[in-house]
Amino acid sequence: MRFIEEIVVEEFLPTFRSMLAEELRERGFTQREVADALGISQSAVSKYAHGEVSRNDLFLEDDRVRELVERVAEGLSTGDMTPVQALVEAEVLVRRLEEGDLLATLHEEQMPALAEYDGALSVHDPDSTLRTAERVRSSVRRGLRTLTNASGFAGLIPNVGSNLAECLPEADDIEDVAAIPGRIFDVKGKATVPSDPEFGVSEHVASVLLSARAAGRDVHGAVNVRYDPDLVDALEAAGYDTLEFDPDAPEDPIVAALEGRDDLTDTFVLYQTGAYGIEAITYVLGPDAPTVARAVRTLLTD
């Protein structure tokens, strides 16, 4: 009796880890950093580096394995991907290879009786909530890097702070929206980010995003910056539709402003010029966090 998990441990994991170790080393990781990223010992990393670990050519040459290795290495090196997301992505690939694919073929070769049966067990769901949530958090990190790396972004932050948010595909509640806890603030001319993106931490930007979705707009990302008529004009000149809303509207002001506006661009701008006790604010909404962040960046490059 030989379990498919034994093939994963003995043939896939050594190959995958050695490939990933090579990619991380090429990106400047030290042996200690590679060991920490992979959750293995430095001696194991040394064995990978010196070719002392047996590798399976089927996995070495598989485009899907190579693509995942490159994507995980890039994500870990930039900080866009956490070790948790890297693990989830690797687990999903393993399960796919188990279902009538490379691992299943190897398993059948070593357990010929399995070839008599059609179908495969679905151990993990590739569309799991965890995987989707980690991808959304990763997307927010990418958008955040676009903002914080842009010279002058701190000057666009309003008094109430900025936030960058992205929601799950079927979001209908604040708990389905990932954003920056505590918001992004201008501290002595520098955009300061308190911590990593989390779900359920934004009421302000998340509520605007959810209202836009409730109005029928297929948006998943949103960011807020200060209001200035010149900024709104610059966004419009860059090709984004702009729309004013009334924060004192008796009903949901976002829904009211968007009602019947099916002609808006995929990424668009909502703004309000302030009211009693309400700071004037500009919102950029679009398909995801990196897209709206790039829209804001146009204000700093023109």
Automatic annotation (TrEMBL):
Stretches that traverse the bilayer: none
CDD domains with a match to the protein in the record: HTH_XRE (cd00093)
SMART domains (UniProt xref): HTH_XRE (SM00530)
Entries under InterPro entries matching the protein: Aldolase_II/adducin_N_sf, Cro/C1-type_HTH, Lambda_DNA-bd_dom_sf, ThiN
Gene Ontology MF terms in the entry: DNA binding
Superkingdom of source: Archaea
Domain named HTH cro/C1-type: residues: 20-48
Residues of the signal peptide: none
Protein name: HTH cro/C1-type domain-containing protein
Organism: Halogeometricum rufum
Lineage: Archaea, Methanobacteriati, Methanobacteriota, Stenosarchaea group, Halobacteria
